[in-house]
Amino acid sequence: MLRQFLPSVVQYTQVPDTEIVVADNGSTDDSLSVLSHTFPSVRVVSLDKNYGFAEGYNRALQHVDAQYTVLLNSDVEVTPNWLEPLLSYMDHHPQVAATMPKIRSFAHRDTFEHAGAAGGYIDKLMYPYCHGRMLNHVERDLGQYDTITPVFWTTGACMCVRTSVYQALGGLDEGFFAHMEEIDLCWRMQCRGYQLYCIPQSIAYHLGGGSLQYESPRKTYLNFRNCLLMIYKNLPTTHLIFVFIVRFFLDYLAALHLLLTHQSKNAKAVFQARIDFWRMRAQYASKRHDNLNKAIVPYPETIAQRSILFDYYFRGLRQ
Questions:
Q1: Alpha-carbon span 56 to 72, nearest angstrom
Q2: Given a cut of 60, is residue 210 above it in pLDDT?
Q3: CB burial string 289-302: b at 16+ within 10 A, e below
Q4: Which candidate, 62, 96, 200, 234, has a CA 20 to 30 Å from the CA of 29?
Q5: How much of the chain exceeds pLDDT 70, in percent?
């Protein structure tokens, strides 16, 4: 990943006073040696073990002193002029806490990529989706999302954050380990009165599945568990009970579908995710209390008043 994708970051990151930092999350291969010999201009923050996506970034950012920080996956190829539009928009809009580029697929260059596409949203049942991607359907990029647009979440594959806001909100939730943690952070940002935008004049290509393959039971587990944790942490009580009741049935329906399609390990992961959420809920009660008490905007207007499952399966909508 480093040999393939870091060269584009070095080549196309030409903004003055910008530093490239690689956080090594306790790697056990030759990553540190490759960085030392092939990329001597890149600063390395070496962590003693694998802290996961969330805590790994939090620890790495303790070593970074910058107005803005881009969280960038190791399987992302950036393009000429990728960084300037993200920084410029934030410079001119102080209430914007995070921006993201348009994310295309590395393997299918004219198609949006699953993790972010042209900006992340969430429906009224708290299912994430994107402009350019609904469930497993992804669109070709034909310029249909080339307008700078407010979003509910910016992708963790490549998101530019206002570092002071990131730190003030406690960064990514370390209990998530990986998956949904950037959506949770973006939700908290909006509840504190900040805005987030997709800047399509910036383009990046994401390989995807570099850490966990899409069919991985571990990935299924983290997505289901962390989604429930995120909802519990951030959703006001007036909406929470309804969403939890509906999600109870929909989660087990998803598990049944996985079982019937011979994906028994993924089905088991859904069951385990729900069990572990209820085990963890008590330790998240204080986070919920803190989030709701500090919320300036209890229910962000970027939450879409639609059900993507209903639109996808019953109305045939794919965007």
A1: 12
A2: no
A3: eebeeebeeeebeb
A4: 62
A5: 98
Query: Which residues, listed in sequence order, are joined to residue 22 by a DSSP beta bridge?
Result: 44
Measured distance between the N- and C-terminal CA atoms of the chain, rounded to whole angstroms: 31
CB 5 within 8 A of CB 77: yes
* H-helix segments, 123-236: 163-168, 181-191, 217-234
- Give the residue from 82, 80, 120, 114 showing the smallest Cα distance to 101: 82
Query: Is residue 199 within 8 Å of 147, Cβ to Cβ?
Result: no
In the predicted model, is pLDDT for residue 30 greater than 80?
yes
Strand-pair category, 43-47 with 21-25: parallel
> Which 8-state DSSP code applies to residue 112?
B
Confidence of residue 209 (pLDDT cuts 50, 70, 90): low
- Alpha-carbon distance of 284 to 225, in angstroms, equals 13
Q: Mean of the pLDDT values across residues 232-253?
A: 97
Encoded tokens for 167 = 């730190």
- Rounded to an integer, what distance in angstroms lies between the CA atom of residue 311 and that of residue 318? 8
Judged against a pLDDT cut of 80, whether residue 297 lies above it is answered with yes
Which pTM does this prediction carry?
Answer: 0.94
User: CA nearest 151: which of 178, 117, 109?
Assistant: 117
Could you give the CA distance from residue 93 to residue 87 in angstroms, rounded to a whole number?
10
Residue recorded with tokens 């939450």: 303
What ranges in 62-134 are assigned the alpha helix state H?
84-92
What tokens were used for 176? 């998530």
- What's the burial of 269, exposed, middle or buried (CB within 10 Å: 0-12/13-18/19+)? buried
Q: Please provide residue 199's backbone torsions phi and psi, each rounded to the nearest 5 degrees.
A: -110, 95
Contact 284, 111 (CB under 8 A): no
Give the pLDDT band (50/70/90) at residue 208.
Answer: confident
